[in-house]
């Protein structure tokens, strides 16, 4: 019975009423069998007074808890006995929302479908997240989260398969011959099977829990029925009804098929209880006062929500409406409409801000779309340079594209209707860039093969004439061979050292013969030079790895450079010195090009500069290869654990390259 439709303050107990109620209590039909009960017209069961309220109450226990619209909340009349909770200290936690009814369903309703297009994880990482989720103790409860990860993993695997297919076709193969199975496919299938078993187990346990909750709620209904039919004199009705409401509120969910009948039974007996309370105005006054205080607390909190962020305010407002229905009913007639109108007005103010949020999100998404399109345009511009690109251009372009890619992924979402198209345009632009870049380096390898053939011809000429003693003809020839060698570009790195050793050996043989035949009277000096170099070599062998070791090495090398030639049969001492020098430098963790090199002759400086140039070229090629390989990863960021060592290697090589360039500059500038 809806006691708010009565005015017990102005009604007197009619003759015979007490006897009628007593008789009604004794002959009360069993409500669980849903038999009719003789009641005044205004004391109908709640579902007969307002069917809409029955639907709203159904949401309180059912497994699905849809978020009511502003119109539905405003139209719902609050004047009925729906109080299901005991009065608790009124404090709404910051994150408390509708999930109080059913956390899983409420969260599912509030969250939008995730936008996977800007997710930077690859398939292996997503499957790793799925594996962690499956291994959790409560994995069966997280069906929605698992299905989202499953959808994302499937999408990422399809994208990676498309990337492999694109690479396969770009390499000149036919699309019909492409066959590739993702390595994580079997693992994904296994995880799906394991999760299904855990989820089925969770549903079975949930069904058992529903059965237990049903039994508990039926016991609560019996207790409520006994409260107004068989209560003993002196019973504290206020305390008893609060305990019953608290028990009903915390009894847990039941199956949907059982809910409607169960809920109607509860509120039927609750109405009967309130009908009995018409005889107890003192209790009714306490109930009205208590519920009015609760309404005032709810209104004050709603006023605070007007200034809160829109999304948070909307979520908590929904929870406040739930409290209004369950813990703030009924109140005295004079406060009923007044408090409800005030609460409804504040609710309207909060819901009006929802359009502001939608408009702001739409504007932000349009701005994000414009930024992303600009990035796509910049990458396309790099893919089509106006002038013929060189190695340096592509290295700068690779770095620029990596920065643009990182910026693209950091930008927020775009309008959903064009989100997929924007993401596909971005991926296709990256693929086009990599295709053009890879074609450049393929052609570069072709030119290196041509350079190799030309240098091999020079080696053959040098070997054919290295033992000739026609000095007037051969000296200019060998000088020209050396000049031509310098003009020819790079060769494949695997062949560079070998052909250089062959060419240098032939030239050294020729010029060694030339010097030995045209130098006289130097034998005694050469022998003395050998003795001095032998002493320096012995001194070098004694150097350790203390703080002054590098200075000692530099001093010994400077003295060594200042000493002249040694007899031809003693030339091996130079190789022995160089070997010992490398060992000592390695012991002290110093590069050969980092130490001071004094007293070098012009030829020695030239030879050192040439060696540095070769090392610079090799390092640049290695760095280019490493950076080029990064482009084949879907997530080539520094945070990717698979690429951590690669980025560290690139950093070290760039540091070494910078040191070599500085040393080369010093040699060329004469510093």
TrEMBL record:
Region Disordered, annotated ranges: 1-122
Organism superkingdom: Bacteria
Compositionally biased residues, Acidic residues: 101-112
Entry keywords, A to Z: Coiled coil
Residue stretches of biased makeup (Polar residues): 22-37
InterPro entries xrefs: DUF349
Composition bias, Basic and acidic residues: 41-56, 113-122
Protein name: Domain of Uncharacterized Function (DUF349)
Protein source organism: Chryseobacterium taklimakanense
